[in-house]
Amino acid sequence: DIEDNSLSKNLTLAIGDANDAPTSVSIAGGSAAENSSGASFGTLSTTDPDAVDTFSYSVTGGADAASFVIGSSNTLKFKSTVSGNFETKSSYTVIVTSTDSGSESASSTLTLSLTDVNESPTDIALSGGSAAENSAGASFGTLSTTDPDATDSFTYTVTGGTDAASFEIGTSDTLK
Length: 176
Fold this sequence. Notes:
Layout: E1 24-29, E2 31-33, E3 40-47, E4 55-61, E5 68-70, E6 75-78, E7 91-100, E8 105-115, E9 123-128, E10 141-146, E11 174-175
């Protein structure tokens, strides 16, 4: 005071915890095998300064948002009517929003990838198809295969038919 008298006292102050907004959304995994309707790409998680928050997730945008839903246990997955094909599209982009228990939210853009699965060939073709008579070992043409996996290689064997014993596969995939 003005007369140089003083008093000291320790005060205890409390700081109340306010809800902080989440900072990001991430996915454990981020990939799924092609050709599987409703495939799960992984489990979503949220980074948040509040260690005890709970979160709800929603797909809120991105080029491929219409193909995705949030599944049980916070998984990000294809809708049950969607099945990806690696050969036509190998990655997808979605924006996922996480909302915490205090209604604060954060959004992140996630890039998801399909893994290629080896698919069975769909057809075998023979170019040519005829040979001159009385010519032992004559080639009837070259075999080729239709397959969704463009980089596959193929081997051929004669496996049946009335005249199977008369044929063999020659060099360069020829039927002779």
